[in-house]
Amino acid sequence: MAQALQLYKGGRSYALTMYVSGLAVECILRAFRWRKEPHFSGRHDLTELFKSSGLLEIEEDGMRRKGFSEQAIQEQGFRLKAAMNSIVKLWVNNLRFASEARLRSHLVAMGAQKGKRGDLSKACALELLNAAKAIVDKGVALWISSKK
Amino acid sequence: MDLLEKVKAALEQYFQPDLLKLEDDDGISGYVVAQQFRGMSSLDRQTLIDQALRRSKEPLSREENRRVIAIAGLSPEEAIASGVS
């Protein structure tokens, strides 16, 4: 995620920012998935990978053990699901091959310019970066706490 | 009616989606592709999906709700661009 942020701040590589952000999400979800089944290969389907990683259940169970209210647990689940929705919407594996011009035409084709002002690629890169950070930060925190 | 059928029925009724692609394998995940998601934030999309499940003719129990892990709401154009449809 630090590298994705560096790319974003550089201001010239939004396609690669988006690719690296999504890749970081895939890596953390696969780490959780591999812990359950070391020989898992799977597809680049992040929705399925999010489910099979068990990350959401681990987070919710942890919050229950700490005495959080059901409403707080639901709200946290909701935030993670919304982050995943942004990631699934914006990330495709072949972004790694995309020029900035190709990224922009891809975003226009998917209607991403609606309701956005200014640099469309920058706005979408930031949305994906923030969403990926939410998932990766949560995953890393859960991974570390599970090792203690 | 099993959980997958209940979720499908709720989303079909609420969105009349262009595509509904769900699977139940240790929890439900997948995509609902509908025009309502055009230009909408991800938080609003999840709110709408949540509403669809709560306002269903066959509402989900709390336990069933917990088994709905990840349903992404996409517009038809996003679905094409991301290779879902």
Topology:
The complex is a heterodimer of chains A (148) and B (85).
Chain A: H1 2-10, H2 14-36, H3 46-53, H4 55-65, H5 70-90, H6 100-109, H7 120-147
Chain B: H1 3-15, E1 19-24, E2 28-33, H2 42-54, H3 62-66, E3 68-74, H4 76-81
Parallel strand pairs in B: 2-3
Antiparallel strand pairs in B: 1-2
Describe the 3D structure:
The complex is a heterodimer of chains A (148) and B (85). Helices cover 74% and strands 0% of the residues of chain A. Chain A is mainly alpha-helical. In chain A, helix 2 (14-36) runs parallel beside helix 3 (46-53), helix 2 packs parallel to helix 7 and helix 4 runs antiparallel to helix 5. The relative contact order of chain A is 0.19. By secondary structure, chain B is α+β, with helices and mostly antiparallel strands. Chain B has a single domain (3-81), classed as BolA-like (GMP Synthetase, Chain A, domain 3). Helix content of chain B is 44%, strand content 22%. Chain B has helices at residues 3-15, 42-54, 62-66, 76-81, and strands at residues 19-24, 28-33, 68-74. Chain B is globular and about 35 Å long. The mean pLDDT of chain B is 93. Classes of the chains: A mainly alpha (148), B alpha+beta (85). The interface between A and B is medium-sized, with 27 and 29 residues.
